[in-house]
Amino acid sequence: MDLLKVSAASKPKLVAGALAAVVREKGEVELQAVGAAAVNQAVKAIAIARGYVAPNGIDLISIPAFAEIDIDGEQRTAIRFVVAPR
After folding, report:
1. Structural domain tally of the chain?
2. Predicted local confidence at residue 1, as pLDDT
3. What 3-state class would DSSP assign to 61?
4. I need a labelling partner for 82 at 20 to 30 A (CA). Which of 31, 32, 53, 73 fits?
């Protein structure tokens, strides 16, 4: 499954476009965000992407989960969203 990393500086429309393209091509994608601002951008991107794929008859769902990741040798908690058609 493809992993898209979302930061606080990510533009939701651009992330949504990438998300929609991967869902159309591979069926599902995973978004990863660390920090409140990055999670906010990821949630906005998922909402926008639902509108992008709806005309194709695709109804997206999102399943959030915690993930422990390593950033520069330091353990951090990320939020991962599995996004797939219903």
Report:
1. 1
2. 81
3. strand
4. 73
